[in-house]
Specification:
Strand content of chain B: 15-25%
CATH topology of chain B: Peroxisomal Thiolase, Chain A, domain 1
CATH superfamily of chain B: Thiolase/Chalcone synthase
CATH class of chain B: Alpha Beta
Strand order of the largest sheet of chain B: 3-2-4-5-1-6
Shape of chain B: globular
Strand order of the largest sheet of chain A: 5-4-6-8-1-9-13-12-10-11
Order of helices and strands of chain A: EHEEHEHHHEHEHEEEHEHEHHEE
Radius of gyration of chain B: 18 Å
CATH superfamily of chain A: Thiolase/Chalcone synthase
CATH topology of chain A: Peroxisomal Thiolase, Chain A, domain 1
Largest sheet of chain A: 10 strands, mixed
Helix content of chain A: 25-40%
Largest sheet of chain B: 6 strands, mixed
Oligomer: heterodimer
CATH class of chain A: Alpha Beta
Structural class of chain A: alpha/beta
Shape of chain A: globular
Distance between the termini of chain B: 24 Å
Strand content of chain A: 15-25%
Number of helices of chain B: 9
CATH architecture of chain B: 3-Layer(aba) Sandwich
Number of domains of chain A: 1
Chain lengths: 397, 232
C-alpha cells in the first residue's frame, strides 16, 4: 500500500521553493554554475545554493550549512507538518532523513582553523553539527517529533532509502506521520574526492551524450510529509538491491540497478507498462550512463526518461529527495509536463534505445489513465534504490 | 491478532582483546574497561585476501562476526538483508582525508570511496555475494535502537526473512570530540528472523521502543535481555 505525500519543500541551485523550481524546470532554465578550487588548483563547476536562511537563535548549536539547507526546506512545509501532527501523540511522529555529508563542512572549517591556530571555532559542536544523526534531530527539535529519529546514510542513495524507511515505519504502524527526504551540503571532501576519482566535469554535466565528461557536485535538499492520509501524490513503493560487485564502480550490465527497478515494481504492485517516466540517476559518467540505460531498456523500455542532474547537479545524499521532488512537480502539473532531458543532443550511440523526455516530447498520460513514475538512485558500494510515485486526487497547495 | 514478534537467532562481536565469539560474549555479560587499540583489525579469514586488503577496519569489525555466525548456523550469506548501525561511520578515514586536504595533497581514491558511512556493507555484500537490501542508520546515542527498529520493520513488513543487524564504531579521533574519553572500537552482528512461535527470545515492539527511549547500546540491550530471560 502506498503512503501519501501531503506536502514537500525543496531548496537547491534551481530554486528556493517548489514553485520557483517548477518554473525553472518547465522553462528549461538551467541555474548558473559556481566554481570550487580543488587540491592542485583546478577549478570545477558546482551547483551552489546562494540564498540559504540562517537558523533561529534557539537552534544555534545546530548551525552548519547542511542544517541551514534543511531549515530552508522545512520552512516550506512547517504549516502542513503542524496541521498533520496536531492531536497526534508526538511519539507517532518520526523524522527519517538521508544525508551523505551531514554537517561535514563544519568539521572541515574547524579542522583548518585548529591546524592553523590551535583553536576551534567558537560554536563548533561535532555532535549537533557534523555527526550523521544530527540532521533529523535538528528537524525533530523544530517540529516536536518524539518518535523514531534517524539518518540513513548510503551515499548517493541515502534520501531514496530514507523515504523507503519512512514508508516502512508507517506501513508497520509505528508512525502516523514521518518527515522524510534528504539534505547534503557542498564541502571540500566530496568535491576533492570525486576529483580524485576522475569523475568531475569541467563544464555542465551532459548525461547520455557521446560528449559526456562527468558530473557536477551540487547541494540542497527536499523534505516530504509522509502520511497515511489521502494525498495529492503517493509513494507507492520501492525496491532496493546491492550490486555485490565493486566499491566505486557499478555492475557494467546494470544487474543491481535492474534488480532494484524490478523489485520496486513488484513492491508497488504496478506493471512495467504503467511506468510513464523514469527519473534517471543520470550522473553522466560513462559507467553509470551505460549500466543504467541497459537496466531501463530491460525493465521499462517504453517509459520516457530524463536526468535532472543538469538542473540540480549531483546532490549526492540528497539526490533521491530532490529528484523525487522533481517527479512530484511533474505529477502535480497540469497539463502534465515531464522534466525534460537537457543535453547537447548527441546521444551516445552505444547506449540501448530508450525514449528520451526531450523538450518537444514531454507530456505524460492524462488524468484518468493508470500511470506511475520511477526515480532511480545508485550509490558507492553498489547500493541501489528505486522509488515508485503516482498521482492522487487534487493538487498541492 | 497475535502481536508480531521477532527472534534473536544468535549474536557475536569483536573488539580489541576480544577476538572470538566466546571472549566477546563473556565481556558483554561481565564488562570491564578495554583500552582503545588503533592497530586492532579482526582476521576475517573467510574474506578473500584481495578484498580484505582493501577493506576498512570498520568493515572487518562486522565481516568477522558475520561470517562466523553464517558458518555456525549454516546460513546462506547471500539471502540475508543488512541493517548497519553506526554512529560515527568511517571517522578515522575521514580525519586522514582532512589531513590530505589541509596539506594540499590529492585524496586517495580508495580512501575516499572507503570514507562513506556505509562502506562496511559494500565490502560485506561483495564478500557475501549478496544482492539484497542494505540500509545504514545513524542516530547519535540512539543508533543501536534505530538499527533495531529498522530491522523490526523490514521483518514486520514482510520485506525480509532474516536480517543481520551490524553494529560498529571506531575510536573517534580526539580532534572531533576534544576532551571526551576515547572509546574502543567494536563490531557486532545480531541475526534476527520472524518469530513463528512464542518463545523466551521473542522480541515485541515495546521492547524496541523502550531501547530507543532509553538510548540503549547493543551491549546494554543484550545484557538486559539476558537478565529478563533469567527472571522469566
Amino acid at each position: 500500500m502506498g503512503c501519501g505525500i501531503a506536502d514537500f519543500g525543496m531548496l537547491c541551485a534551481l530554486g528556493t521553493s517548489v514553485s520557483s523550481c517548477a518554473t525553472a524546470l518547465f522553462s528549461e532554465r538551467l541555474p548558473q554554475l559556481s566554481h570550487r578550487t580543488v587540491v592542485g588548483g583546478r577549478r570545477v563547476p558546482v551547483f551552489e545554493v546562494s540564498d540559504i536562511p540562517t537558523l533561529p537563535m534557539a537552534f544555534g548549536n545546530y548551525d552548519c550549512r547542511n542544517n541551514r539547507l534543511a531549515f530552508g526546506c522545512y520552512r516550506q512545509i512547517e504549516h502542513t507538518v503542524a496541521r498533520y501532527i496536531k492531536g497526534i501523540d508526538a511519539k507517532r511522529v518520526g523524522v527519517v532523513l538521508g544525508s551523505s555529508t551531514s554537517g561535514l563542512d563544519a568539521s572541515e572549517a574547524a579542522f583548518q582553523l585548529q591546524k592553523r591556530t590551535g583553536a576551534y571555532p567558537e560554536k563548533y559542536s561535532f555532535h549537533t553539527q557534523h555527526a550523521m544523526g544530527s540532521l533529523p534531530r535538528f528537524i525533530a527539535a523544530l517540529c516536536g517529533a518524539k518518535g523514531p529519529v534517524y539518518t540513513i546514510s548510503t551515499a548517493c542513495s541515502s534520501a531514496a532509502k530514507a523515504m523507503m524507511s519512512a514508508k516502512g515505519l508507517i506501513d508497520a504502524n509505528i508512525c502516523d506521520v514521518v518527515i522524510t527526504g534528504g539534505v547534503d551540503a557542498l564541502c571540500d571532501l566530496t568535491v576533492n574526492g570525486f576529483a580524485a576519482l576522475g569523475q568531475l566535469s569541467d563544464s555542465r554535466t551532459n548525461p547520455l551524450s557521446i560528449n559526456r565528461c562527468g558530473l557536477n557536485i551540487g547541494e540542497g535538499g527536499a523534505l516530504f510529509v509522509l502520511t497515511k492520509e489521502e494525498s495529492p501524490i503517493y509513494l507507492l513503493g520501492g525496491g532496493e538491491s546491492m550490486d555485490a560487485y565493486h566499491m566505486s564502480a557499478p555492475h557494467p550490465e546494470g544487474v543491481g540497478a535492474a534488480l532494484a527497478m524490478t523489485r520496486a515494481l513488484e513492491n508497488a504492485g504496478v506493471s512495467p507498462e504503467s511506468v510513464a517516466y523514469v527519473n534517471l540517476h543520470g550522473t553522466a559518467t560513462k559507467a553509470n550512463d551505460a549500466m543504467e540505460i541497459k537496466a531501463v531498456h530491460r525493465v521499462t523500455p517504453h517509459a520516457k526518461v530524463s536526468s535532472s542532474k543538469p538542473f540540480l547537479g549531483h546532490c549526492l545524499g540528497a539526490a533521491g529527495a530532490l529528484e523525487t521532488a522533481v517527479c512530484c512537480i511533474s505529477l502535480c502539473d497540469n497539463p502534465g509536463r515531464l522534466p525534460a532531458h537537457i543535453f547537447d543532443g548527441e546521444l551516445d550511440p552505444d547506449l540501448p534505445p530508450v525514449p528520451l523526455a526531450l523538450p518537444q516530447n514531454v507530456e505524460r498520460p492524462q488524468n484518468g489513465e493508470d500511470y506511475c513514475y520511477l526515480c532511480n538512485s545508485f550509490a558507492f558500494g553498489g547500493n541501489n534504490c528505486t522509488l515508485v510515485l503516482g498521482p492522487g486526487k487534487g493538487g498541492l497547495r | 491478532m497475535k502481536p508480531f514478534s521477532i527472534s534473536l537467532v544468535d549474536w557475536s562481536g569483536r573488539a580489541p582483546q576480544l577476538d572470538s565469539k566466546d571472549a566477546f560474549s563473556r565481556w558483554v555479560h561481565q564488562p570491564y574497561p578495554i583500552e582503545p587499540d588503533g592497530s586492532y583489525k579482526p582476521a576475517c579469514t573467510n574474506v578473500p585476501a584481495r578484498l580484505r586488503g582493501k577493506s576498512s577496519t570498520l568493515s572487518r569489525l562486522v565481516m568477522a562476526p558475520f561470517f562466523e555466525l553464517i558458518e555456525a548456523h549454516s546460513l546462506d550469506a547471500s539471502a540475508i538483508d543488512f541493517v548497519f548501525a553506526s554512529r560515527f561511520g568511517e571517522i578515522q578515514i575521514l580525519e586522514s582525508l582532512f589531513h590530505s586536504i589541509y596539506s594540499n595533497e590529492p585524496l586517495s581514491p580508495v580512501d575516499f570511496c572507503n570514507s562513506v558511512h556505509h562502506t562496511a556493507t559494500g565490502y560485506l555484500s561483495i564478500a557475501a555475494k549478496n544482492m539484497r537490501i542494505s540500509r545504514t542508520v545513524s542516530a547519535g546515542p540512539h543508533t543501536f535502537a534505530a538499527g533495531l527498529l529498522e530491522s523490526w520493520q523490514l521483518l514486520a513488513n514482510n520485506i525480509s526473512d532474516t536480517v543481520a543487524l551490524l553494529v560498529a564504531d571506531e575510536t573517534v579521533p580526539p580532534f572531533f570530540v576534544p576532551g571526551e574519553k576515547e572509546r574502543h572500537s567494536y563490531g557486532m552482528v545480531l541475526l534476527f528472523t520472524k518469530a513463528l512461535l512464542a518463545k523466551g527470545d521473542s522480541i515485541l515492539l515495546p521492547d524496541i521502543l523502550d531501547a530507543q527511549h532509553n538510548a540503549l547500546s547493543a551491549t546494554d540491550w543484550l545484557r538486559n535481555r539476558k537478565a529478563e530471560v533469567e527472571n522469566s
